[in-house]
Structure formats: C-alpha cells, structure tokens
Amino acid sequence: MPAHILQEISGSYSTTTTITAPPSGGQQNGGEKLEKNPHHWGADVRPELKDDLYDPSYQDEEGPPPKLEYVWRNIILMALLHLGALYGITLVPSCRLYTCLFAYLYYVISALGITAGAHRLWSHRTYKARLPLRLFLIIANTMAFQNDVYEWARDHRAHHKFSETHADPHNSRRGFFFSHVGWLLVRKHPAVKEKGGKLDMSDLKAEKLVMFQRRYYKPGLLLMCFILPTLVPWYCWGETFLNSLCVSTFLRYAVVLNATWLVNSAAHLYGYRPYDKNISSRENILVSMGAVGEGFHNYHHAFPYDYSASEYRWHINFTTFFIDCMAALGLAYDRKRVSKAAVLARIKRTGDGSCKSG
Ligand SMILES: [Zn+2]
Ligand SMILES: [Zn+2]
C-alpha cells in the first residue's frame, strides 16, 4: 500500500472508511512521478484490488483506425430486442397496472444488480457485502443480462485502467454509437483482449458465487431475464402473453441496457468535469437519473474506490441509498469514502473550474 495513504474511520458511519489524501499531493510516495500524474492522486485502501486505477503510461500506438469486424448474431438479436421494446411502448396503455409496476420493479432490481453489484461491489470493491446481499445482487445481476459479473468486471477494470485507448472496451474516442452499443456488435479490438487478459482478476476467481454464476450463466439469464418476467404477469394476474413479453421483458430489458450504456456514452461526452479536466468522463445528471446514481462519472473516474461513485451520498443516487440501507441492516460494511479535503484538493488541482455536480 502506498505510503501516502492515510486511513481513518469516520465517527458518523462506523462501517465507513474515509480515505484522506495528503495535504501536499502525492509527493510522499515516489515524489516526482506521482506528483506529475494527477490520476494517481488521492488514495486507495483496497488491498484486494489495484487494477481499476488509470494507467497513463499506456497509450495507443500510431496507426490506421481499427477495422470493424461485425458480429451479425449480436446485431440481429439487438435489433430484434429493440423492435420488440418499441412495440412494447405502444402496448403500455393496454397493460394492467400490476404489469407496469412489476416491470418497473424488475428494472430497479436488475439495475441494482449492475450498479451495486457488478460495478461498485465486484469491479471496484468499494464496500463489502455479506452472503445474503451477495446472493440478492448475483440474482439481480443475472436479471440484467449484461454478461456475467466476471466478464463485466474485467471489461470495466480495463475501461478504467486504459480509458480512451483501444484497450478500453467502449473507448468513447470512437464516438457515441460505438461507446453506447457498437462495441457489443463488433469483435473486440486486439488491445482489449491483450490488456484485459493481463488484469488481476484473482479476487473474483476466488469468489465462489461469482464463479457459480459464470458457470451456469446461460440457463440463469434465460430464466431470470426472459422466462420469469414473461411468465409472472401472464400467469399471476392474467396479463396477455404479448403484453408480458413485449413490456415486462423486452421493454424493461432494453431500458436497463440503454440506461447503463449511457454511462459509457453520454457520461463520457456531455457534462462538466469539476474534478479532473484531463479525463473524458463527466458529471451528467440525466444519466444518474436513468442509471440509479451512476452519472457522476467525472468523480467516479477520479475516485473509483468511493462506494457512492459521487461526491454526494443520496443525491440522485438510489444505489448509494440502497447500499446504506443494506449497511443499516448489517449486510454491507466497510464502505470506502473519499474525504472532503481530498475532493476539494483534487478540484483545485485538476478541476475544470465548472460548478460541481447537482
Ligand atoms: Zn467511464
Ligand atoms: Zn467504474
């Protein structure tokens, strides 16, 4: 652990670890190099994880733009899903109230499976969760069908470590469409495979629940993302099969996908950069609303180890509210939080001078 890391336990939240940056920057540890590299500034207290921190030493080699190799199966399936979802919108007025409520609940739970689960817990290790919560999150994550947690976290760590290079799976330098959904419709750039394959994933390999989901992912996603949400409204309260399929399944799934993808596209292209103007990710309130709190993206890339993924806690951030509720129940603990002093120092040092989020 770097020498400049100071750790203190906050008095107000007994299971929150507050991370405090040194008053004079990163000079205590390695001096010059860290001082010149604002991305390593701030501190990190996760012994189990280091490979989600930005590595500015990796840059693209000069050369022609990468050739696109289309994956037609994904293109066709994604097109059919979105056609089904668009048709689902026209069916909403004819749905029973229970169906709309069920689809909304399914959206919130599956979104939490991504934000509180794959993202803040498993990709970044920003807090710890006891078995009942991890069970809930792995089920919720399977409902969301965005690849299994192991693959999601590997792509996401590469996105943070090699941001805006060809080794970033959804490199936003390749445009809105590519970073939104295009990256799922073409073969991965060789740099993604090469650099992603070398990331330290030992923490997830050692987690039985994550490996269990990976092993049984196909039947799991078919059941949780497609079969169950279609059968429940149809069987339990007599919704028509078509409404169930197109609204509760296709529309709900497409909404969760697009809300998540907006974090990779819109929140890397539109918004302020109050914490670090040298990185592309931005603060985007609209994205936060759709992605239950994940739109404070300039902050998140500046401090990927903060469990709130935002300078604030419950401000347009349902995921933080959820994790705090779980902490109150004793199911979440050791929530990592960056200190106000470290945030203010970072704003002064690398911010773009714009207003803060919210
Ligand atoms: Zn990002
Ligand atoms: Zn992240």
TrEMBL record:
- Tell me where it resides: Membrane
How would you describe this protein's topology in the membrane?
A: Multi-pass membrane protein
Q: Which family does it belong to?
A: Belongs to the fatty acid desaturase type 1 family.
Q: What is its main location?
A: membrane
Fetch the InterPro entries from UniProt. Acyl-CoA_DS (IPR015876), FADS-1_CS (IPR001522)
The molecular function terms in GO held by this entry are: iron ion binding; palmitoyl-CoA 9-desaturase activity; stearoyl-CoA 9-desaturase activity
Q: Which GO terms describe its biological process?
A: monounsaturated fatty acid biosynthetic process; response to fatty acid; unsaturated fatty acid biosynthetic process
Keywords attached to this Swiss-Prot or TrEMBL record, sorted alphabetically, are: Fatty acid biosynthesis, Fatty acid metabolism, Iron, Lipid biosynthesis, Lipid metabolism, Membrane, Metal-binding, Oxidoreductase, Transmembrane, Transmembrane helix
Q: Which organism is it from?
A: Cricetulus griseus
Extract the ranges annotated as region (Disordered).
10-45
Q: What is this protein called?
A: Acyl-CoA desaturase 2
Query: Which GO terms of the cellular component aspect does the record hold?
Result: endoplasmic reticulum membrane
Domain notes, please?
The histidine box domains are involved in binding the catalytic metal ions.
Q: Where is the composition biased (Low complexity)?
A: 10-26
Parts of the chain that traverse the membrane: 75-92, 104-122, 216-235, 241-263
Cofactors named for this entry: Fe(2+)
* Keyword Ribonucleoprotein in annotation: no
Record's compositionally biased regions (Basic and acidic residues) = 32-45
